[in-house]
Amino acid sequence: MSGISRRDFLRTSSAGIAGTTLGAFGFTEVQAAMVAAVKPFHLVNTTETRNTCTYCSVACGIIIYSKGDIRKGEHADIVHIEGDADHPTNRGTLCPKGAALRDIVKSATRLTQPMLRKPGSDKFVPVAWEVALDKIARAMKDDRDANFIAKNADGTTVNRWLTTGFLAASATTNETAYATYKVVRSTGILAFDNQARV
Ligand code: SF4
Question: Most Cβ neighbours (<10 Å): which of 40, 71, 151, 197?
Fold first, then answer.
């Protein structure tokens, strides 16, 4: 066998036998069917955005996957949400509520804008965020001006505002929670809580 080594001969022969045997079993058709059955990876061409689970004070890190580039004027639609493996709190894990976060986003009953029920009306109507924020600020200022207690009966400075309460979100970073606490307490509000009551 000039020009071909023993190793080359064996390699070529093995490939030929394998090809013939697989061909006899119709393996190429099976292979084609398998390839056709494999779904494309659903996170291809998605944008990853890191965020915090909205549910509770554990504040697990999440990654939100969306399709559509808003920088090109496209509508960005959330297609998947999962735990962030790099987040020190949850290391990629999510409890059942967190694992169902996408359902919150897609829920038909989810509120996406402020709702206002005017005096005497029996229904809520959507209003712009500016309208809602101005209305809340006006009501808080008027109530604080009317009810702020600077000193108690003994003349001791107390700076209390007892007629308004503040409900904040627990699912925030430490820094946001700290800033929120400082702002709310600086007004004299005592009734201050969040949805996780921590
Ligand atoms: S995933 Fe579960 S434990 Fe983590 S913040 Fe959300 S609700 Fe809390």
Answer: 151
Same domain for 188 and 124, yes or no, is: yes
Range of the domain at 21: 6-37
CA 71 to ligand 1 center in whole angstroms: 31
DSSP characters for 32-80? HHHHHHSPPPTTTT-EEEEEE-SSSTT--EEEEEEES-GGGTPPPEEEE
Question: Taking all residues of the chain, what is their mean pLDDT, rounded to a whole number?
Answer: 87
94 lines ligand 1 (CB under 6 A): yes
The proportion of the chain whose per-residue pLDDT surpasses 90, expressed as a percent, equals 59
Kindly report the pTM of this predicted structure. 0.62
Note whether residue 102 is domain-resident: yes
Report yes or no on 188 lying in a domain: yes
